Amino acid sequence: MSLSTSTDQNQGTRVEFRNVSKVFPTGKKSQTTAVDDVTLTVEPGEILGVIGYSGAGKSTLVRLINGLDTPTSGELLLDGTNIVGMRERELRGIRSSIGMIFQQFNLFHSRTAAGNIEYPLKLAKVPAAERKERVRELLDFVGLADRGNHYPEQLSGGQKQRVGIARALATRPKLLLADEATSALDPETTHDVLNLLRHVNRELGITIVVITHEMEVVRSIADTVAVMENGKVVEYGSTYEVFSQPKTDVAARFVATSLRNTPDQVETSDLLAHPGRLFTITLTEHSGFFDAAARAREAGVGLSIVHGGVTTLQEHSFGKITIRLNGEENAIEEFHRTLQGTTDIQEITR
User: Which of 94, 241, 328, 340 can bridge 237 by disulfide, Cβ–Cβ 3.0-4.6 Å?
Assistant: First the structure.
């Protein structure tokens, strides 16, 4: 499953937001700020996951990138070119290097899978023989070589989204924008589509901006994460950094939905019904937990893991565990003090 044409190998677009805001009027004397003073950079060939709850400003951010909305203030640069204030004619040229993938697929029901993929090539006035070969390559690339003559109603949700991805790739874009591209799909199909997007990124070098409200999507595909709330980017960093040590409440809430590694209220009540002191500890490569646990055991402290989970992300392991300690209080306190200096440790009490 590859695209043989050498022109597909390209360096992705560099996207820069410089103090970008977008304000919409909501009445004669009122307005709402959808994007609020955003500054961030997406490097060429990077996958950025933009996550936030409904109304956070994610979709507006995408519309600013492809020029469908214009910033109220600030600069938005694509490969060093500021697109703010560009005329529509100039923006059409910019959009030709940007592919869009939609939540509801946006396929033409009157066209076959091949016809949907061919459509942007017809608009670009690509010769018929070249169009046919490009469609054949793309159908093979997305794993639908035998589905070209099928209409959308004959395809599953995952197959429709694969057609959508192939169509987005038809004109050889350097940037892909995926707006909630998997939220209409079941978990297994979501996994397959995300694998395909990762393959697109790795093989073709295309920059991808993924808009989502699902942290599992970010975890699966993104190199970096921007967490949005009320129009602002409240947290930004590598996927590992945001998952292992979220700095804001909203990021921590999103991480908790993907990593079920802390006991819920019912589980906590059950754990507190037994003797011993309970601690939830964040595990990273530098947490020092195992050394502290060994010293506690040498001091006669009984230690048992009662809840938790550890995962690997971007070649780093991290997670949280909840442990029960029984034994001499001074030794338990020493264990607690030691870890307070190296990682996050929280005691669970009634």
Answer: 241
